[in-house]
């Protein structure tokens, strides 16, 4: 992929929470709970409807060679389906401290994007691949940091044991799938910086005493998942 857009340099002490909200999509339909059951999710991926992803590529803010990556969008099959997310540690070179899916770069030995996502999930959060039922993939999402990410959606057995890798994961938490598939929780932010308009979604979630600010690429892939589920 050729990067033809101007480079975007983050604001000093950039805090995405401080960028104004341009739109909240409370007028869009919520995905029915009946469509969020394991059987319904399997059926949706087995026979996907015609649809188009809303978000495919962010404005660049890092000049480097494009790199293929994959993430696991893990739906834990509790009484209420939950999406497992992580908070990245502060010392990582890219997207430090942000909310993310388990995932990372494609290795030469990975047979597929699913293999990458499952390997990375095992390395980051100790998720045994035998506990994951892969449903399928969403279209690629290209980040401003030059990663071309394939999101892999999977169902996770509720009894799966998880152990965070402290080098990469500062915290693990779960968000109800119904919360993420309700567009009333999707907020669009917009800012102009150095001639580039940058937009992203956020989906703030209160996890007990912790405020989890889901935004950027993670929120963008979740927004595409919403579009897939509501098509």
Tell me about this structure.
- The protein has 4 helices and 12 strands, in the order βαββββαββββαβββα.
- The radius of gyration is 17 Å and the shape is globular.
- The protein has a domain of 157 residues: Nucleoside Triphosphate Pyrophosphohydrolase.
- Strands 2, 3, 4, 5, 6, 7, 8 and 9 form an 8-stranded mixed beta sheet that branches. A 4-stranded antiparallel beta sheet has the order 1-10-11-12.
- By secondary structure, it is an alpha+beta fold.
- A hairpin with a 2-residue loop joins strand 11 and strand 12.
- 18% of the residues lie in helices and 33% in strands.
The Cα radius of gyration reads 17 Å
Q: According to CATH, what is the topology of the domain at 32-45 and 54-181 and 216-230?
A: Nucleoside Triphosphate Pyrophosphohydrolase
- What's the helical proportion of residues? 10-25%
Distance between the first and last residues' Cα: 28 Å
Q: How would a textbook summarize the main sheet?
A: 8 strands, mixed
Structural category: alpha+beta
Shape: globular
Q: Briefly, what is this?
A:
The chain has 231 residues and is an alpha+beta fold. The chain is 18% helix and 33% strand. A hairpin with a 2-residue loop joins strand 11 and strand 12 (210-215).
Structural descriptors:
disordered N terminus; eight-stranded mixed β-sheet; about 35% strand; Nucleoside Triphosphate Pyrophosphohydrolase; about 230 residues; four-stranded antiparallel β-sheet; single chain; alpha+beta
Helices and strands, with pairings:
Blueprint: E1 21-24, H1 38-46, E2 67-76, E3 82-88, E4 99-100, E5 103-105, H2 113-125, E6 132-137, E7 141-142, E8 147-156, E9 169-176, H3 177-180, E10 187-193, E11 196-207, E12 210-215, H4 216-230
Parallel strand pairs: 2-8
Antiparallel strand pairs: 1-10, 2-3, 2-5, 3-4, 3-9, 6-8, 7-8, 10-11, 11-12
